[in-house]
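User: I'm writing a tutorial on reading structure tokens. Could you give me a worked example: one chain, its sequence, then its tokens, then a sentence or two explaining what the tokens reveal?
Assistant: Sure. Here is the example chain.
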Amino acid sequence: MPFNLLLIPLLGGYIFVRFWNYTKIPMLRADKDRILIRASLAGFFSLIPAFLLSIYVPQLIPCSSDQYCLYRWWAKNLPFEYSGVSVIAFCISSTGWWFLNRVYGREKAVDHAIDEDADPLEVALKDSKDGELPLAITLQSGKVYVGVITHQFNPATPTNNIAIFPLQSGYRDAETKKLHLTINYATIVQKMRTRVDELALEIKAQEVKSRENADLGDGEGSAACLAESSRLHDEWEDMESRLTLFEVIVPVSQIVSIFFFDEVTYEEYFLNESPSADGQPKKDAGKTRKAVKN
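And here are its predicted structure tokens:
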């Protein structure tokens, strides 16, 4: 095969590794030499089925003298040896990624890239998002947010900002660095979420009532129920949109520390700590008496 024809499957190999989910992220992270090697390997392996197709397809579907024949047309108009093999290899590699992505989705690719790179920050952020595990994020200003990661990951690019849905917020004492949580967003969000669920039930009830009135021939009653349903739906949409306003964007450059936050452990061991005479933390008297009594 002429070497210049190898550029065609090489181009197809580049398209394959650039868009197949399994290789897309490593490709964006790789240097140009690794990109060339991976594209060459993909192009080479696409030549194997291309050669087999060029050999066996004409035998299985031979040309007849009285019909149009693609093989004869190709040999007559493109008389370059193995040009057909190169084009077939290009078609296989440049389209094969689409079929493979039906099996190997983006989420699997992101998980694989993060696990392979094993960056502690990316691992913690991904675990928080997937498992809805709260993280405590301390900023340079001393502000602390406890919340769940909400933004989509792209491991191919550096993470400059992270988006969290805050559950609580507070600050760290400037001297002792003790954590003080002062605002409980979870309680506020829970009240709003409860109201959203109530509105959904009320909307459904008004729609059912409207149909019942229509069946009874009460047009005015049916219209009134529909109007009330529309008003409740507007209120429901407004409440849903307000829930999204709680999201906070945090620049990674401002983060001092991140750790998984367990509210039970925090309340049991850290919430009521106070310094003792020897400078060591101790529990409050009520909990101490309870422990002695038990």
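What the tokens reveal: The radius of gyration is 32 Å. DSSP finds eleven helices and eight strands in the chain.
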